[in-house]
Amino acid sequence: MKRREFTRAGLKTMAGAVVLPRSPGLGAWHWSAFRSPTAEGDVVVKVLGTAQDAGIPHIGCYCANCERARKNLAFARLKPAIAVLDMKGKKAFIVDASPDIGRQFDMLHERMGYNTAAGINTPHGILLTHAHIGHYTGLMYYGYEGLNAMKTPVYCTSKMARFLEENGPWSQLVRLENIALRIIRPDEKISLTERISFSPLLVPHRDEYSDTVGFIITGPKKDLLYIPDIRNWEAWNRSIREEVERVDYAILDGTFYSPDELPGRDLTKTGHPFILDSMDRLSSAAKSGKSRIYFTHLNHSNRALDPDGPEQKKIRGKGFHLAADGMEMPL
Hints:
Layout: E1 43-49, H1 64-71, E2 81-86, E3 91-95, H2 101-112, E4 125-127, H3 133-136, E5 152-156, H4 158-166, H5 170-175, E6 179-183, E7 190-191, E8 197-203, E9 212-218, E10 223-227, H6 240-245, E11 249-253, H7 275-281, H8 283-288, E12 292-296, H9 310-317, E13 321-322, E14 328-330
Parallel strand pairs: 3-4, 4-5, 5-6, 10-11, 11-12, 12-13
Antiparallel strand pairs: 1-2, 1-14, 2-3, 7-8, 8-9, 9-10
């Protein structure tokens, strides 16, 4: 297979930070279902997926949430990832490489105005949070059997880099130079473009194969905090309230709504905070209106997924929001 050259295509301008309208439908997932009004600004964050690592509908599950998503794609959610777009500099970066990276590429392809005749279009870099399946296994598609990419920068901690270097099939990506590892360190600010920088924040999680980080992403005018996975807020050596109050947007781990949504399992041992607890801790930040707080990484069992349920109403009533695939925020 001949190695493919990357194509750097132009980006369209954007207008307003909004959530996409969901489109009902059955059968195959169409990337056109992700079209939405766009957000203005030189830098924009686009949400690419908001489900827990296995997506919604969840494999082998036929609960009400999963059946609703199978019957109507308006309620399906892709695996967790966001993109950071430098509209003026014509560069795009993905935070986490989910197994849905193909569909998420289609979302970026449309949003960035790639020329379909130009061949393969890839992001200018990938930022990894940790080594759980929904956050890095999409890297496999950068390899010989897929994109056969050339030195795509992958920003990760030294522990995450070692995991990729020492374990197949990821080690082949490094050896064949499909990806180029860039080591990041907690609290060290890194510039991606003239308009985009980020700082990793080390957070506690299960950490079987690597450590875990969240990110503060900084644009010309605003900051966004992204923490899709954390054990709980008590275990962190920082105050989540103070961190949220420093930024304009926060997209936080909302895996479970409450501790009783999976009968027979002790959810306190799964390594995630509950939305109910997060809302209590962040109530003052939500009420102030300075920071808009969104919950992501939603498990298929999450009761807040019911559009007619009291949980969604309670979330909105307290000034919080559920993140949605395709929504955009200007930085």
